[in-house]
Amino acid sequence: MIDHESSLNARENNVKGSENNILQELREVLGEDWVSSNPSVLENYRAAYEINAGKRMEPEIVVFPSSDSEVKKVIDIAEKYAVPMLSIGKYFDHTGERNAEHGGVLMDLRRMDIVGG
Amino acid sequence: MKKASTDMQHYRNNAWACVRCGICKMTNPEKIRGQKHADNCPSGTRFKFEPYYGSGKHELVRALTSFRPEIGIDETLLHVIYTCTQCGACGEICEPVKGINPYHASAALREHVVEEGFGPLPEHKTLIKSIMNYGNPWLSPRASRTRWTKKLGFKPKNVQKEKVSVLFYPGCTQALDPVVQEVAIATARLLQKAHVDFGMLWDKEYCCGSTVLRVGDRATFNTIKDYNMQMFKELDIDLMVTSCSGCNSILKEEYAEELPFPVIHTIEYIDQLIQEGKMKPSKKIASRKATYHDPCHLGRYTDVYDAPRRVIEAIPGIDFVEMDRIREYSWCCAAGGGVRTAFRNDLALWSADLRLEEAKETGADLLLTTCPFCEQNFKEVVAQKDYGIEIMDVLEVLDSTLE
Predict the structure, then answer these.
(1) What does the alpha-carbon distance between residue B216 and residue B37 come to, in Å, rounded to a whole number?
(2) Structure confidence by residue, pLDDT tens digits, A56-85
C-alpha cells in the first residue's frame, strides 16, 4: 500500500530542496519573465476553498509556456524533480476546481492563444 | 467614475466577492467583433501573471490587510502595483455585474505602499520634486510656462487682473512640451475666434497634482490642492476649461465640489459652442479618414464620450470611422498612472503600439485624441515605426477649419 503522507512529504522536500535548480531550469526554457516564485504572485493562485481543506494550498512556482514544445519541456522538468503539476487556462475558477493541493508547478496556458499555432 | 475611498480595509471583502470569473480581464464580448481585441487590461495582457489583472488586486489587498500580512512589500509587488495604468477598464465591466471595481483597490494599494514608505518609484519622485520646485513635472522654470503664447498673435487676458468669463487652464504638459504645445495654441485660437471672453493664470498657473495623486502620494497632492484652491477661490469667473484630460479628471474628481464655478474639458465647451451655433467649422480640410481614441481620463473617468465624436463629425472633410474597442471599453494607451514615467519601453510604448495596430485596421490615416499624454505616447511610437497614421488633437484639426 502506498504511504500517501510520506510520498507527499518527499515531494514537498523535492521542491524545496531543489527550488533553485528547478527555477533555474524553468527560466532557461521559458525566460526570466515567464517564471515566478514570488509570494505576491503565488498568493493569487491560492485555492479559493482552502479553508474547507484546513491547510494552505498554493503552487510554489507559476510558469507561462507559449508553445507545445515549451509545455513538454516544463512537464519533463517537473517529472525530473518529481513535483506535482497543475495547468490552468485563463484562471476562471468559480468553484475552486483547480487547487494546487500539494504545491508544485502551476502552468498557466494563457500565452497559448493561437489556434493551431 | 465615482470618487471612492482609498482605505484598503474598505476593499478587503472584495477578495471574497470576486468569484474569479475573469470578466475584468476582457472587453464586453457584445461590443467587439472578435477575440483579437478581447483584452482590456494593458498590464495584465503584457505581464500575464494573475496579480497584474484587476482580480489580482483584490487578493493583494486581502493578503496585505490580514492581521499578520501574508505578503511583504518587495520589488515584484511594487512592479505589480505601479504597472497598473489606472485606466479603470476592469471596473467598467466588473462593476455592473458584480458591483466591485478593482480600479479602486489598485488606487488604495498605491496609497498604502506610499504610506509604508516603499512608493512612489524613484522615477515618480523626480517628477514630484519638479512639481514642488517649479510647479510643473517637466523640470522647466515657471517663467517658461507661458512661452507658447508668443505664437498666438494676440495676448489672452490675465484672470487675476481682469474680469473674464472663462478661465483657460492648459495644464503643464501642453504648456511646456513642444510635442503637444500646438493643442494649447489651437485651443486659445478657437476661443478667440468664437469671441469667448477668456483669460489665463499665466505664470501663476500651478500643476493640478494629477500625476502625484495617481502614483499614490496623497499627502503631497493635498499640499498642491490647497495651494491651487486658495488661488481658484479668489477668481471671479463663470467657468473653467482645460484641454488636458489628466487635469480634467482630477479637477472634476477632487476640486469641483469645493469650487464656486464648474470645470469642463475644452472639447465639451467647444461642442456646446458648435451646438449653439456660435462656432461654425466651414473651411473644408483635405479629405481624411479619421478615428478617435478615447482617453481614459476623459471617457471612463468623467463619462465624456459623445462630445468629441460630435465635434469630429462637424469637421468638413473628415470621414469618421470607429475602432473595435471604443468608449468605456477603449484600450488604454498606458501613458497614464505614472506608467510612461517608470515603464516607458516595457509597457507604455508596447500598449500604444497595439492601439495603433487597431487604428490602422480601420484604414484611417489620422488618429485623433483629446489627451496630451496619449498624444505624446502615440507620437513616440509613430516616430519609430511607420504606420502611415498622423496623430493629432481634435481641436488642432478643428482650428484649421475656422476662418
Answers:
(1) 30
(2) 778 899 999 999 999 999 999 999 999 999
Distance CA B140, CA B124 (A): 16
Asked if B25 is an interface residue toward chain A (Cβ–Cβ < 8 A), one would say yes
Query: What is the 3-state composition of chain A as percent helix, strand, coil, each rounded to the nearest 5?
Result: 45, 10, 45
Separation in Å, CA of A1 to nearest CA in chain B: 38
- Using the beta-carbon criterion (under 8 Å), do A48 and B70 form an inter-chain contact? no
So what's the pLDDT on residue A4? 47
Q: Does B59 touch chain A (CB under 8 A)?
A: yes
Give the pTM: 0.91
Look at residue B214 and tell me whether its pLDDT is greater than 90. Answer: yes
Q: Computed over its alpha carbons, how large is the radius of gyration of chain A?
A: 14
> How far apart are the C-alpha atoms of B311 and B315, rounded to whole Å?
7
Domain boundaries, chain B: 8-115, 125-274, 278-399
What domain range includes position A70?
Answer: 4-108
Nearest CB to B51: which of A33, A40, A111?
A: A40
Q: Could you tell me the CATH number of the domain that includes residue A69? A: 3.30.43.10
Residue A116 lies in a domain: no
In this complex, which of A36, A40, A48 lies closest to B20 when CB atoms are compared? A48
pLDDT tens string B10-42? 888 888 888 888 889 989 888 888 788 989 999
**If we measure between CA atoms, which residue out of B127, B119, B122 comes closest to residue B80?**
B119
**Tell me, which fold does domain B278-399 have in CATH?**
Rossmann fold (3.40.50)
**Sheet of B390-393, strand order:** B318-320, B288-292, B366-369, B390-393
Architecture of domain B125-274: 3-Layer(aba) Sandwich (3.40)
Instruction: Check CB contact of B70 with chain A, cutoff 8 Å.
Output: yes
> What is the C-alpha separation between B334 and B245, in angstroms, rounded?
14
Residue of A40, A58, A64, A97 to mutate, interface with B, max B Cβ within 10 Å: A40
**Long-range contacts, B383-391 (Cβ 8 Å, 24+):** B384/B349, B385/B353, B385/B356, B387/B356, B387/B359, B387/B360, B388/B360, B389/B356, B389/B359, B389/B360, B389/B364, B389/B365, B390/B365, B390/B366, B391/B367
